């Protein structure tokens, strides 16, 4: 039987990369950090602000996001948007995600020849 701690650890590892793909996908339309947190949460991505903001800074340092400050409102907000390179990376990551999902589905589909029982 799997312990809750073991499962939790594996789920965290599985989700880690998905936040990058999701963020790059959402930020094709400019958005600020808090709105991104809300959008991701509504879509089922559990991510905390203390995880997301460093991720946004890292993606910007990698040239995948660009940012600008909106000071038109009472509280200034930093808006992020994917760069051309960020858009390309997002497409490549989603393509790979789809390929891996299909591969896992294929592994989970019963076949006439089970591993270790070839005739």
From TrEMBL:
SUPFAM superfamilies: Winged helix' DNA-binding domain. It comes from the Bacteria. Residues 26-88 form the Transcription regulator PadR N-terminal domain. Pfam families: PadR. Signal peptide: none annotated. This is PadR family transcriptional regulator. It comes from Cryptosporangium minutisporangium.
